[in-house]
Amino acid sequence: MRFLIRRFLALGGVLIASSMIVFCALYLAPGSPEQFLVQGRTVSPEVLDAIRAQYSLDDPLPVRYWNWLSGVFTGDMGRSLLTQQDVGALLASRIPTTLSLAAYAAALIIICGIGLGIVAGTRGGVAERIVIFASNLGIAVPTFFAALVLMSVFSVGLGWFPVFGAGEGAVDRVWHLTLPALALSLPSIAVIARITRTAIVEESESEHVLIAVARGLPRRVILWRHTVRNSLLPVTTAVGMHIAGLVAGAFVVEYAFTLDGTGALLVNSVQRKDFAVVQAIALIMVIAFGVVNLLVDLLYTVIDPRVRLKKGA
């Protein structure tokens, strides 16, 4: 319980510090909201003053930050400068698409990345060489290029999957998001497969595994209880980092497959200086990173009880 309390307090501190950095960086960047609102037209100083007063741009930066942060805690993230919609309502219609895409990609990373790494690390030979070659290729291929290749082959060429939209309903959404999730997760699958394979090879040569072999334990027990399980700590760290980055990296795939998610909205909002939307999406990304890191820390204690004992000490 003490460990959980410390982790939640640390997560809260990171969220506050990150939100402060994001908030200040947007206002320090070139350009201003009122310049976007007037669209380059020449307006009187009175009109500019009215715009600044409407959006509280004349308040000191700490006051603006406090007003925004207190609004977030009450569920009020402000209004979009571009559409005049409530930011919470605007994100509510887009977050399910991004979360579905990120969850699908995360499942592919865990299943395919760790699975291929285990195959390469335990079997060796041709299987290991194939996994290494495929992982090198996956790491070298950029996400946008992978998206174009997948669309050309499996959508335009074979017609197996749709090329745009997120679908309606659970089954239709899975069908629509298969290619985007594969394009988003492909580099991470390659990295996780290499890390898993290396961790298993190194663990198989450790002292306790050699002792288990000398004692004549069954190969299945040695493989899963002593080799694979003990090699999962570095793999878990890498998986957590890649999954946490899925929300931030989804905008490329969302643009390529015309998905109505938060990534595409973020790019459009940054270009148009829609501060309230950018701040809200950035805060969501920070929360995603913090939550995933917290889950990784908790998973450590499940994989290796020694970590739990150390935390308790």
Automatic annotation (TrEMBL):
Coiled coil (UniProt feature): none
Top-level taxon of origin: Bacteria
BP terms from Gene Ontology: transmembrane transport
Lineage, broadest ranks: Bacteria, Bacillati, Actinomycetota, Actinomycetes, Micrococcales
Record localization: Cell membrane
Family assignment from sequence similarity: Belongs to the binding-protein-dependent transport system permease family.
GO CC terms, sorted: plasma membrane
Keyword hit for Transmembrane helix: yes
InterPro entries for the chain: BPD_transp_1_N (IPR045621), MetI-like (IPR000515), MetI-like_sf (IPR035906)
Keyword Iron included in the entry's annotation: no
Entry keywords, A to Z: Cell membrane, Membrane, Transmembrane, Transmembrane helix, Transport
Regions crossing the membrane: 7-29, 101-119, 131-154, 174-193, 232-257, 277-303
UniProt protein name: Peptide/nickel transport system permease protein
Membrane topology listed for this record: Multi-pass membrane protein
